[in-house]
Amino acid sequence: MSLPADYHMHTPLCRHATGEPSEYAARALALGLTEIGFSDHSPMPRDDFDNWRMRLDQLDDYVERVARARREHPALTIKLALEVDYLPGQEAWVRELAGRHPWDFLIGSVHYLADAWDIDNPAKLSRWRERDPFEVWTAYFERLTLAAGSGLFDIIGHVDLAKKFCFYPQEDCMPLFRRFLAVARKSGAAIELNTAGMRKDCKEIYPSRSILELAHELAVPITFGSDAHAPGEVGADFNKAVALARSVGYSHWLRFTQRRREPVKLLAG
Protein backbone atom coordinates (compact mmCIF):
# COMPACT_ATOMS: atom_id res chain seq x y z
CA MET A 1 0.00 0.00 0.00
CA SER A 2 1.21 3.52 -0.82
CA LEU A 3 0.53 5.32 2.44
CA PRO A 4 -0.59 8.95 2.79
CA ALA A 5 1.48 11.53 4.62
CA ASP A 6 1.73 11.35 8.39
CA TYR A 7 0.92 14.93 9.34
CA HIS A 8 0.81 14.67 13.13
CA MET A 9 4.12 14.12 14.92
CA HIS A 10 5.74 15.64 17.98
CA THR A 11 9.23 16.39 19.28
CA PRO A 12 10.93 16.38 22.71
CA LEU A 13 10.28 20.11 23.00
CA CYS A 14 6.70 19.32 24.08
CA ARG A 15 8.17 17.60 27.16
CA HIS A 16 6.25 14.36 26.71
CA ALA A 17 7.79 12.95 23.51
CA THR A 18 11.09 11.24 22.79
CA GLY A 19 13.34 11.16 19.74
CA GLU A 20 14.63 13.89 17.46
CA PRO A 21 12.84 14.82 14.23
CA SER A 22 15.59 13.10 12.24
CA GLU A 23 14.77 9.83 14.01
CA TYR A 24 11.10 10.18 13.10
CA ALA A 25 12.12 10.89 9.51
CA ALA A 26 14.33 7.80 9.39
CA ARG A 27 11.46 5.68 10.68
CA ALA A 28 9.12 7.15 8.07
CA LEU A 29 11.53 6.25 5.27
CA ALA A 30 11.88 2.73 6.64
CA LEU A 31 8.09 2.36 6.47
CA GLY A 32 7.98 3.58 2.88
CA LEU A 33 6.38 6.93 3.63
CA THR A 34 7.28 9.67 1.19
CA GLU A 35 5.93 12.64 3.17
CA ILE A 36 5.54 13.58 6.82
CA GLY A 37 4.74 16.68 8.82
CA PHE A 38 5.85 17.78 12.27
CA SER A 39 3.08 19.47 14.23
CA ASP A 40 4.28 19.82 17.79
CA HIS A 41 2.24 21.55 20.50
CA SER A 42 2.54 25.28 19.99
CA PRO A 43 3.53 27.72 22.72
CA MET A 44 0.88 29.55 24.70
CA PRO A 45 1.05 33.26 25.57
CA ARG A 46 2.10 32.12 29.05
CA ASP A 47 4.86 29.52 29.29
CA ASP A 48 3.41 28.28 32.59
CA PHE A 49 0.00 27.52 31.10
CA ASP A 50 0.75 23.79 31.30
CA ASN A 51 3.71 21.41 31.19
CA TRP A 52 3.19 19.67 27.85
CA ARG A 53 4.22 22.13 25.15
CA MET A 54 7.26 24.05 24.00
CA ARG A 55 8.07 27.46 25.45
CA LEU A 56 7.82 30.48 23.19
CA ASP A 57 11.60 30.93 23.25
CA GLN A 58 11.93 27.39 21.83
CA LEU A 59 9.85 28.02 18.71
CA ASP A 60 12.84 28.92 16.52
CA ASP A 61 14.71 25.88 17.85
CA TYR A 62 11.75 23.72 16.82
CA VAL A 63 11.86 25.13 13.29
CA GLU A 64 15.60 24.49 13.10
CA ARG A 65 15.23 20.87 14.28
CA VAL A 66 12.74 20.23 11.50
CA ALA A 67 15.06 21.95 9.01
CA ARG A 68 17.88 19.67 10.17
CA ALA A 69 15.72 16.61 9.55
CA ARG A 70 15.06 17.92 6.03
CA ARG A 71 18.78 18.31 5.38
CA GLU A 72 19.58 14.85 6.72
CA HIS A 73 16.76 13.11 4.81
CA PRO A 74 16.46 14.80 1.41
CA ALA A 75 14.53 11.86 -0.06
CA LEU A 76 11.62 12.57 2.30
CA THR A 77 9.23 15.51 2.00
CA ILE A 78 8.99 17.04 5.48
CA LYS A 79 6.36 19.66 6.26
CA LEU A 80 6.58 22.23 9.06
CA ALA A 81 3.48 22.75 11.15
CA LEU A 82 2.03 23.28 14.61
CA GLU A 83 -0.75 21.75 16.65
CA VAL A 84 -2.46 24.76 18.22
CA ASP A 85 -4.92 24.60 21.09
CA TYR A 86 -8.12 26.49 20.40
CA LEU A 87 -9.24 28.57 23.35
CA PRO A 88 -11.95 31.19 22.84
CA GLY A 89 -10.45 34.64 23.21
CA GLN A 90 -6.99 33.63 22.02
CA GLU A 91 -7.62 33.98 18.30
CA ALA A 92 -5.20 36.90 18.05
CA TRP A 93 -2.47 34.73 19.56
CA VAL A 94 -3.07 32.04 16.93
CA ARG A 95 -2.81 34.65 14.19
CA GLU A 96 0.46 35.89 15.66
CA LEU A 97 1.87 32.35 15.73
CA ALA A 98 0.70 31.80 12.16
CA GLY A 99 2.80 34.74 11.00
CA ARG A 100 6.03 33.78 12.74
CA HIS A 101 7.18 31.10 10.27
CA PRO A 102 6.14 29.72 6.85
CA TRP A 103 4.02 26.88 8.24
CA ASP A 104 2.69 24.30 5.82
CA PHE A 105 -0.44 23.75 7.90
CA LEU A 106 -1.91 24.36 11.33
CA ILE A 107 -3.82 21.69 13.23
CA GLY A 108 -6.46 23.12 15.53
CA SER A 109 -7.19 20.94 18.53
CA VAL A 110 -9.38 21.17 21.59
CA HIS A 111 -7.89 19.73 24.75
CA TYR A 112 -9.24 22.22 27.26
CA LEU A 113 -12.82 22.85 28.37
CA ALA A 114 -11.48 25.18 31.05
CA ASP A 115 -8.02 26.54 31.73
CA ALA A 116 -7.59 23.95 34.46
CA TRP A 117 -9.08 20.94 32.67
CA ASP A 118 -7.41 19.31 29.71
CA ILE A 119 -9.87 16.48 29.22
CA ASP A 120 -7.34 13.98 27.82
CA ASN A 121 -4.93 14.33 30.74
CA PRO A 122 -4.75 11.07 32.75
CA ALA A 123 -3.79 13.06 35.85
CA LYS A 124 -7.23 14.70 35.73
CA LEU A 125 -9.30 11.62 35.07
CA SER A 126 -11.28 12.21 38.27
CA ARG A 127 -12.86 15.27 36.67
CA TRP A 128 -14.66 12.99 34.23
CA ARG A 129 -16.19 11.03 37.08
CA GLU A 130 -17.68 14.22 38.48
CA ARG A 131 -19.42 15.22 35.25
CA ASP A 132 -22.20 13.94 33.05
CA PRO A 133 -20.57 12.57 29.86
CA PHE A 134 -23.15 14.17 27.57
CA GLU A 135 -22.53 17.55 29.19
CA VAL A 136 -18.80 17.17 28.57
CA TRP A 137 -19.20 15.93 25.01
CA THR A 138 -21.59 18.79 24.26
CA ALA A 139 -19.17 21.39 25.61
CA TYR A 140 -16.29 19.74 23.78
CA PHE A 141 -18.02 19.71 20.40
CA GLU A 142 -19.28 23.24 20.87
CA ARG A 143 -15.69 24.39 21.31
CA LEU A 144 -14.50 22.20 18.44
CA THR A 145 -17.17 23.80 16.24
CA LEU A 146 -15.88 27.25 17.19
CA ALA A 147 -12.37 26.12 16.25
CA ALA A 148 -13.55 24.84 12.88
CA GLY A 149 -15.47 28.03 12.18
CA SER A 150 -12.65 30.35 13.17
CA GLY A 151 -10.87 29.98 9.84
CA LEU A 152 -7.57 29.76 11.71
CA PHE A 153 -6.82 26.10 11.04
CA ASP A 154 -6.24 23.89 8.04
CA ILE A 155 -6.98 20.65 9.91
CA ILE A 156 -9.02 19.89 13.01
CA GLY A 157 -7.23 17.36 15.20
CA HIS A 158 -8.50 14.12 16.81
CA VAL A 159 -12.14 15.09 16.41
CA ASP A 160 -13.68 12.86 19.07
CA LEU A 161 -10.89 13.07 21.64
CA ALA A 162 -13.60 13.05 24.32
CA LYS A 163 -13.84 9.27 23.92
CA LYS A 164 -10.25 8.66 25.04
CA PHE A 165 -11.13 7.33 28.50
CA CYS A 166 -14.37 5.64 27.36
CA PHE A 167 -16.80 8.01 29.06
CA TYR A 168 -19.55 7.71 26.46
CA PRO A 169 -22.89 9.56 26.65
CA GLN A 170 -26.10 7.56 26.52
CA GLU A 171 -27.71 10.39 24.56
CA ASP A 172 -27.52 10.75 20.78
CA CYS A 173 -24.51 12.88 19.84
CA MET A 174 -25.10 12.87 16.09
CA PRO A 175 -26.56 16.42 16.09
CA LEU A 176 -23.32 17.63 17.72
CA PHE A 177 -21.24 15.83 15.12
CA ARG A 178 -23.34 17.10 12.22
CA ARG A 179 -23.18 20.72 13.34
CA PHE A 180 -19.40 20.55 13.77
CA LEU A 181 -18.86 18.90 10.39
CA ALA A 182 -21.18 21.33 8.60
CA VAL A 183 -19.16 24.24 9.99
CA ALA A 184 -15.88 22.53 9.06
CA ARG A 185 -17.13 22.05 5.53
CA LYS A 186 -18.23 25.67 5.24
CA SER A 187 -14.91 27.01 6.53
CA GLY A 188 -12.83 24.58 4.46
CA ALA A 189 -11.21 22.78 7.37
CA ALA A 190 -10.17 19.16 6.97
CA ILE A 191 -10.34 16.56 9.72
CA GLU A 192 -7.65 14.03 10.45
CA LEU A 193 -7.80 10.29 10.88
CA ASN A 194 -5.65 10.12 14.00
CA THR A 195 -4.47 6.64 14.87
CA ALA A 196 -3.36 7.50 18.41
CA GLY A 197 -6.81 6.44 19.57
CA MET A 198 -5.78 2.86 18.84
CA ARG A 199 -3.16 3.23 21.57
CA LYS A 200 -5.55 4.72 24.14
CA ASP A 201 -8.31 3.25 26.32
CA CYS A 202 -10.90 3.67 23.56
CA LYS A 203 -8.88 1.45 21.16
CA GLU A 204 -10.39 3.25 18.17
CA ILE A 205 -9.15 5.67 15.55
CA TYR A 206 -10.20 9.29 15.98
CA PRO A 207 -12.85 9.87 14.66
CA SER A 208 -15.27 6.97 14.94
CA ARG A 209 -16.68 5.35 11.84
CA SER A 210 -20.07 7.03 12.34
CA ILE A 211 -18.46 10.48 12.41
CA LEU A 212 -16.31 9.69 9.39
CA GLU A 213 -19.33 8.47 7.44
CA LEU A 214 -21.05 11.75 8.16
CA ALA A 215 -17.92 13.69 7.23
CA HIS A 216 -17.84 11.94 3.87
CA GLU A 217 -21.53 12.62 3.36
CA LEU A 218 -20.88 16.33 3.96
CA ALA A 219 -17.72 16.33 1.77
CA VAL A 220 -15.32 17.25 4.57
CA PRO A 221 -11.76 16.45 3.38
CA ILE A 222 -9.32 14.35 5.39
CA THR A 223 -5.68 13.99 6.34
CA PHE A 224 -3.89 11.28 8.34
CA GLY A 225 -1.77 11.44 11.47
CA SER A 226 -0.19 9.01 13.90
CA ASP A 227 0.15 11.64 16.66
CA ALA A 228 3.55 10.05 17.20
CA HIS A 229 5.36 10.90 20.41
CA ALA A 230 8.20 8.46 19.67
CA PRO A 231 9.83 7.35 16.40
CA GLY A 232 8.30 3.88 16.71
CA GLU A 233 4.80 5.38 16.50
CA VAL A 234 5.30 7.01 13.09
CA GLY A 235 2.74 5.67 10.64
CA ALA A 236 1.22 3.45 13.33
CA ASP A 237 -1.97 1.68 12.16
CA PHE A 238 -2.02 3.64 8.91
CA ASN A 239 -3.17 0.55 7.00
CA LYS A 240 -6.25 0.44 9.23
CA ALA A 241 -6.84 4.17 8.85
CA VAL A 242 -6.63 4.02 5.06
CA ALA A 243 -8.94 1.00 4.99
CA LEU A 244 -11.44 2.85 7.19
CA ALA A 245 -11.34 5.95 4.99
CA ARG A 246 -11.84 3.96 1.81
CA SER A 247 -14.63 1.88 3.35
CA VAL A 248 -16.76 4.97 3.98
CA GLY A 249 -16.10 6.29 0.46
CA TYR A 250 -13.04 8.55 0.62
CA SER A 251 -10.86 8.49 -2.49
CA HIS A 252 -8.50 11.40 -1.73
CA TRP A 253 -6.58 13.03 1.11
CA LEU A 254 -5.22 16.57 1.31
CA ARG A 255 -1.58 17.59 0.97
CA PHE A 256 -0.61 20.97 2.40
CA THR A 257 2.23 23.25 1.30
CA GLN A 258 2.49 26.64 2.97
CA ARG A 259 -1.22 26.59 3.80
CA ARG A 260 -2.22 25.65 0.24
CA ARG A 261 -4.08 22.39 -0.27
CA GLU A 262 -3.87 19.75 -2.97
CA PRO A 263 -6.03 16.62 -3.20
CA VAL A 264 -4.03 13.39 -3.52
CA LYS A 265 -5.51 10.07 -4.54
CA LEU A 266 -5.90 7.61 -1.69
CA LEU A 267 -4.44 4.38 -3.00
CA ALA A 268 -5.55 0.91 -1.96
CA GLY A 269 -3.19 -1.91 -1.19
Can you give a write-up of this model?
The protein is an alpha/beta fold and 269 residues long. It has a single domain, classed as Metal-dependent hydrolases (TIM Barrel), CATH 3.20.20. It has 8 helices and 10 strands. Helix 1 (21-31) runs parallel beside helix 2 and helix 5 (133-149) packs parallel to helix 6 (174-187).
Sum this structure up briefly.
With 269 residues, this protein is an alpha/beta fold. It is built from eight helices and ten strands.
Summary tags:
269 residues; alpha/beta; TIM Barrel; six-stranded parallel beta sheet; two-stranded antiparallel ribbon; 8 helices; 33% helix
Summarize the helices and strands and which ones pair or pack.
Layout: H1 21-31, E1 35-41, H2 59-72, E2 77-85, H3 91-98, E3 105-109, E4 112-114, E5 117-118, H4 125-129, H5 133-149, E6 155-156, H6 174-187, E7 190-194, H7 209-217, E8 222-225, H8 238-247, E9 252-257, E10 260-265
Q: Could you state the CATH homologous superfamily? A: Metal-dependent hydrolases
Overall form: globular
> Oligomer, anyone?
single chain
Q: Tell me the distance between the termini.
A: 4 Å
- List unreliable stretches of 5+ residues: none
According to CATH, the fold-level topology is TIM Barrel
Number of DSSP-assigned strands? 10
How many strands, what sense, and barrel or not for the largest sheet? 6 strands, parallel
Kindly name the structural category. Answer: alpha/beta
Percent of sequence in beta strands: 15-25%
Helix content: 25-40%
